[in-house]
Design goal:
- With 385 residues, this protein is an alpha+beta fold.
- It has two domains: 165 residues, 3-Layer(bba) Sandwich (FAD/NAD(P)-binding domain), CATH 3.50.50; 160 residues, D-Amino Acid Oxidase, subunit A, domain 2 (D-Amino Acid Oxidase, Chain A, domain 2).
- 24% of the residues lie in helices and 28% in strands.
- The chain has eight helices and 21 strands.
- The strands form four sheets. Strands 1, 2, 9, 10, 11, 12, 19 and 20 form an eight-stranded mixed beta sheet that branches. An eight-stranded mixed beta sheet has the order 6-7-5-15-16-17-14-18. The protein has a three-stranded antiparallel beta sheet with strand order 3-8-4.
- A hairpin with a 2-residue loop joins strand 10 and strand 11.
- Helix 2 crosses helix 5.
- The radius of gyration is 21 Å and the shape is globular.
- The C terminus is likely disordered.
- The structure holds flavin-adenine dinucleotide.
- Flavin-adenine dinucleotide binds next to helix 1, strand 3, strand 14 and strand 18.
Length: 385
């Protein structure tokens, strides 16, 4: 049979989600090409920095449990293909008290799961995790199989394995335009024009702009800080979350990094940023002061001037769930947007879903993430960057 197009699928955006999609498509024997405007990993998107926390628990409910099992399975497959452990199993500690929405939902979700965890009273928790600030009225939860995911190595593994399976990946080659017709899609990038049966768009914070959709998403500026661990300080290796009071905030969190420093972050809310304005890695004085206030309360042994900061952004969807599915105007275009603060650990499973949807495999389990759930997603006049 004569093939209509040189590629089965083109993937635009080779950050964690797009890299995972090209890996899945290529290992299935599809003819796939991928493009990115930069060379990931880089500091201009959502994946900047060395690590991401990859716990088994979540604050988003049992609907995510099958995806969690599957994403860990896929991380292990990718590690085996790459010959390197991409998840460091150090355990995860959560501290909080009833009334914190994030903490309550995490506990409820854990209780409804098979994920191993221990709930500790204050005294044994303080004795076991002496470096972490734990107040007398707080509960501590330890999840032994919580992990830290390696960003640089994980992304490289996806790119390398996709290439090993035949994918053609082009970096520093931005998408300039695309169109759809009865035979497929035509994609114009800085290097030329390419045709495929289908297009996957995984461009993170640029999604609304490139897809020409007013997605219900806020792109928020976030900063990761690294602090030196002073000589003689023994810091527990587990990743750490301290839940804030109230319903709406995300927790202060941290984890050890491969260079021997400790990373922490205090997620910001409402600090919206235009993706093309993320041009430097400089934190503000107020951001440093806010994270150090938390540090003094939660991990006082490492308080000091940060040795490094990484500024990146994540996309917060109004209802708290990713947006994954087919474009409302273009049947041949599938996209993943609205990564939230948990999109890295789920990248293997999100990429698998994008690959399935792009090749006609039904994924009823992805209904929760369908763009069609938003009645109000409107189409913009222009979709160019
Ligand atoms: C501070 C912070 C902390 C986080 N912590 C965690 C965590 O602990 N655990 C977790 O699981 N997740 C975490 N996340 C979320 C996770 O990093 C993201 O979910 C993930 O990076 C999303 O990947 P992506 O591929 O959708 O987007 P990106 O990583 O932004 O990748 C998108 C890619 O698209 C490319 N692109 C854009 N426009 C074009 C164009 N015109 N042409 C070609 N290419 C283009 C970009 O160059 C980029 O490489 C965190 C995010 C942030 C910001």
């Amino acid at each position: 049979m004569q093939r209509r197009n040189p590629y089965d699928v083109i993937v635009v955006g080779l950050g964690p989600w797009g890299a995972s999609a090209v890996w899945h498509l290529a290992r299935r024997g599809m003819r796939v090409a991928g493009f990115d405007r930069h060379t990931p990993p880089h500091g201009y998107g959502s994946h900047g920095g060395a690590t991401r926390l990859a716990r088994q628990s979540n604050s988003t409910g049992p609907a995510y449990h099958p995806l969690t099992h599957r994403t860990f399975e896929l991380w292990h497959q990718l590690s085996a293909e790459a010959g390197q452990d991409l998840l460091l199993e150090s355990g995860t500690v959560f501290v909080g008290k009833a009334g914190s929405g994030w903490f309550d939902r995490t506990l409820e979700s854990l209780a409804a799961s098979e994920f191993e965890h221990e709930i500790l009273d204050t005294e044994p928790a303080q004795a076991r995790f002496p470096s972490y600030g734990i107040a007398d009225d707080e509960t501590t939860v330890f999840e032994p199989h919580g992990t830290v995911a390696l960003v640089v190595e994980g992304l490289r593994a996806m790119h390398d394995q996709a290439r090993r399976h035949g994918a053609e990946l082009r970096f520093d080659d931005p998408l300039e335009d695309y169109s759809e017709n009865a035979d497929g899609v035509e994609v114009r990038t800085a290097s030329g024009t390419y045709r495929a049966d289908r297009l996957v768009v995984a461009v993170g914070a640029w999604s609304g702009q490139i897809l020409g959709l007013d997605l219900p998403v806020a792109v928020e500026r976030q900063v990761l800080f690294n602090f030196a661990i002073p000589d003689g300080v023994r810091l527990e290796t587990a990743a750490y979350f301290a839940a804030p009071p109230g319903d709406d905030s995300a927790p202060f969190y941290g984890c050890p990094e491969p260079d021997g420093s400790y990373k922490v972050s205090l997620p910001s809310r409402g600090k919206e940023i235009r993706p093309d304005k993320l041009t430097d890695q400089q934190p503000t004085t107020a951001e440093v002061a806010a994270v150090r206030r938390c540090l003094r309360e939660r991990i006082p042994a490492i308080d000091g001037e940060p040795i490094r900061a990484t500024v990146c952004m994540w996309s917060e969807v109004t209802d708290g769930h990713w947006i994954i599915g087919t474009h409302s105007r273009h049947d041949r275009i599938v996209f993943g947007a609205g990564c939230m603060g948990r999109g890295f650990r789920y990248a293997p499973v999100v990429g698998e879903a994008l690959a399935d949807l792009a090749t006609g495999t039904e994924r009823p389990d992805m209904a929760l993430f369908s763009p069609q759930r938003f009645q109000s997603v409107t189409v913009r006049g222009a979709r160019r960057q």
